[in-house]
Amino acid sequence: MNRTPDTRPLWKRVLLRRLRFFGVLAALVIVLLGGSYLFAPQWLLRAHQMRQAMAAHVQEHTLRAGDTRWSYYEGGSGPTLVLLHGFATDKTIWLPLAGQLTAHFHVVIPDLPGWGESSRNTGESHGVQAQAQRLQAFLAALGLQRVVLVGHSMGGAIAGVYAADHPGQVAALALLDAYGLKATPNDFERAVTAGKDPFAYDDRAGFERSLQLAFAHPPKVPGRIEDVFVARNRADRAFLERTLAELRKPDDYLSLQHDLGRLNMPVLGLWCREDRVIDASALDSLRDGLAQAASISSSVLSGCNHMPMVEKPEATAQVLTGFVLGR
Questions:
Q1: What is the pLDDT of residues 58-106, one digit of tens each?
Q2: CA nearest 157: which of 131, 139, 134, 137?
Q3: Which residues are CB-contacts of 16 (< 8 A; sequence separation ≥ 6)?
Q4: What angle do CA 284, 266, 185 make, to 5 degrees?
């Protein structure tokens, strides 16, 4: 059977072949993404976090220090900032802020022991005091000295206790909506005191309630990605409950408050005005208790709840940059 010769110009034939190729490629990508969303949403979440890390100019590393295999991000150049996350989160929570900092700072962001991709020692304490001790091993393994410690929520208490115990190792301390201080009781504190974990959830509705608790404007999360967080929360439930029980003990509950008088470095307190987890009145306790601090700075941001590094990364970076470079 004779074929009719293709009389179209060469450039048209080449263009059509390329268009067909890219059409098939696009269809394959759509199928793969759709399949990943339905059957392996954790891959999409991981890919999203990798894109965030690339945009923030940080790379992921691991090392063994003390009793923990630590996973951490590192990038940028300049004065070293070590960022410590809070309860029920991990190092990825800092990525929106890290993108604002790596142009001016050397940034190190670990998963605290037991959280994220760092190892968990079953049966060992993961309270404030124990984590502050582990932090010393991590910083020593990296050869870091005279760092600026930045701690959020539970990570703020850990940073403050570490700074009080190792003042020569901490050039400055920044506390973001930090745990461990006296504050006006709120619904969250009353629930925790009663033995409840407001951040425990078993379904998408519970996950969305936890977002509403921590964010002034909760992010929109696709349903199958919500399922990834729900599965993780269920798998970690025993650890979450055990750690929260430790944080309620007297030694941890006001751990930062008890050590304020020993802090002799410059200290920054940064709070969200609408924080419904740790009331902004804790900032007054911080300022009043810093009897020996070289300097005291404070800042209150509007339009955010308990997560300033996510809801207000530009404003948070501006405050941190001014605090560190203006000393």
A1: 999 999 999 999 999 999 999 999 999 999 999 999 999 999 999 999 9
A2: 131
A3: none
A4: 20
CATH number, residue 245: 3.40.50.1820
How many other CB atoms are found less than 10 A from the CB of residue 236? 16
Identify whether 52 is part of a domain: no
Which structural domain range is residue 192 located in?
A: 58-325
Cβ 98 vs Cβ 75: under 8 Å = yes
Domain membership flag for residue 17: no
Say how many domains are in the chain.
1
Residue 275 corresponds to which tokens in the numbers above?
A: 């924080």
Structure tokens at 68: 């923990």
- 256 neighbors 180 (Cβ within 8 angstroms): yes
- Secondary element (H or E) of residue 130: helix 128-142
Q: Point out which residues pair with 68 in neighbouring strands.
A: 65
